[in-house]
Here is the input.
Amino acid sequence: MTKTVGWALGGGVALVAAGLLSVAALTFDGWSPPSVPGPREPPVGVPAPTTRQTLPEAGQLEFVVEGGAARELELTYRVPGTAVAKATLEVRVDGVLPSADWRAVTLDQPWQDYGPRSFDRYHIETTSAQAPVATWLRARLEEASRLSGVPLRLDLAPGPHRVTLLNRGAPVEIGGLRSVPVVVPPTAPSAERVGSNPAGLNPLAVIEAENYAWRSESVVRAAAEPGLAAYPNAADRRLLNTLDESSWALPGQTVAWDVEVAADGWYQLGLRSKRSAKENAASYRDLLIDGAVPSADAVAVPFEWTQGRWTTGLFGPAGKPVTFWLTKGRHELVLRADAGPSAAAVRSVRSVMDALSDFGLEARKAIGNSSDADRTWDVDRYLPGAATRLKGWAARLESIYQSLGSGHGNPTFAENLRIAASRLREAADKPRQIPSRLPSISEGDSSALRLLADTLQQLSSQPLGLDRLYLVTPGTPLPDLSPSPVATLLVDLRSFLRSFVPGESAYFGRSGANAALQVWVNLPLQYVQIVQQMADSRFTPATGIAVDLSVLQGDQKLLLANSTREAPDAATGIATGLPYAYGIRGAVADLASFPGFQTFVQQNFAAQSIVPYTLGSKVWGLTEAQDFYVLFWRKDIFANLGLTPPQTWDDVKDLLPVLERRSMDFYVPLAGWNGYKPFYTTLPFVWQENGRVYQPDGASTAFSTEASLKGIRLMTDLFRLYSMPLQVPSFYNDFRYGRIPVGVANFSTYVWLKSAAPELAGLWDIAPSPGVRQADGSIVRSQIAADRADVILEGSKRKDDAWKYLQWWLSAETQTDFAFALESRFGPEYLWNSSNLKAFANLPMEAAHKAVVLEQWKQIRELPPHPAAYMVERSLSDLWNSVVVEGRTSRLAADRANVEADREIVRKLEEFGYAQNGELTRPYPVPETSLAGGAP
Amino acid sequence: MNKNKGVFVLMAPYFTLYAVFILLPILLAGALSFSNFNGVRFPDFTGLRNYVVLLTQDPVFLRNVLPNTLRFAVLAGLGGYALSFFLAWSLAQITPRIRTVFAVLLYLPSMTGGIILTAVWSIVFAGNESGYLNGLLMSWGFLPRPIQWLQDPDYLLPIMILVSLWSSMGVGFLAMLAGILNVDKELYDAARIDGVRNRAQELIYVTIPSMRPQMLFGAVMAIVGTFQNGAIGPALTGSNPTPQYAGQLIVNHVEDYGFIRFEMGYAAAVSLALLAGIWLISRLAWKVFGDE
Here is the structure.
């Protein structure tokens, strides 16, 4: 017994000692800089065509092409802009859409890294700047989802045909369009041919996956995997060494590598790859060499699930490696994500979904808006064959589920298919009650339809992580790179011990006792990394001020840090209520006292944006990010019902009965909050009726004034008299499934709909928020907009430097570049809602939507700050509650809210020296501005 | 004295930790409660003002917080205590294997705590038709339209009490279960001879008196637990304060003043009042179950 303990202890000590030694040896680790991919020679693309035409946004162009059976359309084009979103065309042939697929044809653009990769201050290698190559390209038209993996096909009668291109996105230049016959890839070379390989070839060439030449989308990115698993690696720094698995998952995403071949011969491709997501199902890749598929077996090659481990193997289906002939010189190897057999599964699921949603509509038509669950129906009369249809769909879903599984086990990522099938079977078992079972078939949160929609994206995704590519001659063994368990253990131990070395935990707290400006950023790490890079490469060289950024997790910590004298010099991205709350208590600096404040604000921000931080002549913060509340509406549903989007709340009141007859609803942000309704959900109604929150002397609320009361009535009547839904847990979902086809929502809903609801692309739009029509005919649509704020701490000894930093960070240039860097690195869901109006105007966002937001921002009306604002917010929330939930009259409730809030207002004004013994001694300056007043 | 040195050495670690993490904060809170402190500037001494305001000028405290806390403490605290005892006693009657399973099942809610609160109960009581309770009641035809369970001041506190009862089978429950199982079986036989005729009498004359330490432990845990259980209202409604202060407990009131209104001094006074309340009721429990 004692002996065992002794051994264990000894072993432990030895391990720790080894770890310490390796920490000591850090600086001696062999490491050489990776080769740097720069702009490519020869360049990507085709020579510029002689005739070129510009196809502007929403414009159209016509071409005449030759007819014939099995044709594809080949387009020569150039995308001049640098937008992350792809150029999108709608294509009509002889004036009609050949099929729904032609509605959205997307044009790829190669993205390259520019400039060398560099290490950040924490020895993490980061990618260089990303930009699309604005060169002329030639490609066969493919539909947006790239599910089929081949270009769109046409069967045309012989003779000339008219093809119209309608631009649905950013401007494109067109060099020409012609119809070409379908290309059939050659069959694989025979074994005898391959066997006669010339002698003296380089048996093994290594290409690091992260050193790609270009890729079709900027979001496919190199990643730094720590530890020994991926190559290259180093103990004292994190190298970009893989192609990130999750970033390369959408069908159609391609990555290209350049390879220099020394001599003509037969070659094969070896890959060190990894699969961790989508368990028990394969991902697929196509191989293209110099733009063409070498042989038919190089298409849709499966990569089985590897439980997240790196495995090395030859590229080819089921143990038969693809062999191809390469001539001496430079070649381009391209791997393209292919949906493979899952494309069929996606199509089947989609068709079941369409059928289910038609079935739901059919049932709704038959039973109307009845919700009586006990009623039984003569189903055969109203919904002929309902039970058999449901069972048929269930069987189809089950067979899709079976087809997805590989030899290793069930495709657990697609479990929803099985659950949906069982929902349908349950409903089919009691045919007479099918109409009452719509919530589990086609409507609501747990319906089969919803479950299927949730799975759809997972189904088509094709994740694959790559570490290395090998160009080998047939028969050459591939190197085995898996590290030994002991080495892995030692490295893990070392990195664990390193985490105790001060300054080694990147972006958390001070990086040593240096003299850099300390800035705490209340944003996720990936954002902070980009800001730090930008500050290091631009701000510091220009001003000589070094900046240390740290991730601030939870802005409440700022107060605690302040009381221990550990506060930073500046903090960015904090809640908009905090600058004032800290400012009036003397914890943050008055920004208005810094040189150039007035001009900086006037040139960059909406006039109202500083209102939430203002007291008298003091301004304690600046808005960094600005939200927008606009009307979201479903174009398809509105067109179906013959409706137009509402302009005013009166329009909404007219619209509600029409929607409710079809068991649809309207959404306002108030319904998204469970208990307590924050100001930005309640105040817009008061603003739009030109009401106020506080009396001008700041000593009491203004709820009982005529204008405010009108706003309060509007806010409560919508729920009480027009029965808007009181609680909507997820507008985004209800909007997707059409249950709530219209509502007022914000920036995050916009981003979700844009990036996570591909099935809705083009089916929805935004418009300025509904408002109240004034006597002069104009409509006041005011909303609150401040989202996150920046401050400088009063305790800072470097306030002037901090002010320079804020000016740099909030400048139009920095904000624009930051927005672009963020989106090109992480994808369109990382849209940055900059409050800098110039930067927002430059955002890579749909122009029509941007115009709507900028229009809405003309009507920003921010909340004037007050030391007792929380109490007023509460009173307004409680007022809504007592009118809508408890059924009191709004006048009585408003009076009560007034009394409650006023007591706290006087108490707080006393605390800050505006009142004594319950009497106002000097007026509290409420920076309340009406829109007519303009600047504060 | 020399002989006792060892005792002090052994006590030192505990006492140091106790002093640093319990005694010192309480003393600091006590000092702060006599001051006006906004978290930024140095506190200024205001004497007993915070306590005077608490008892005379804080309508929310007197009208909502205090009655809510008392109601919650009596129903959820006493109720939970009685329920723990009843369930522990019932479990003691069944065979060990099944007993273990049930004990774990009953103990589970008190372990999972906060996350389950929001994940399960706010869905059960959600205010639209997809909330389980509304959904069931509507499908059975009891309700024409959903009730705002968590929004309506009439329902919020009862729901909080219900949820608290569900999670009240904590350490106290386990202690009582152990206590009941520990009672000497011969005592029951002796009691039989002395004239005990039914299980109820057994319970009152034998079981409870023999397990006084566990009863006391359970009582103290229940008291402290219910008074400190402030997370439940905000967890259910998603915000502090709860709608119309309907579910506002003392702990929420402390947070409200400390972190929303930046009146740390007053918050300290309220939390000391809470401490006093807990201490008083614990004394009562000692009186009933203590061993003098």
User: Anything to note?
Assistant: Residues 342-367 of chain A form the longest helix (26 residues). Confidence is low (pLDDT under 50) at residues 1-6, 8-38, 930-936 of chain A.
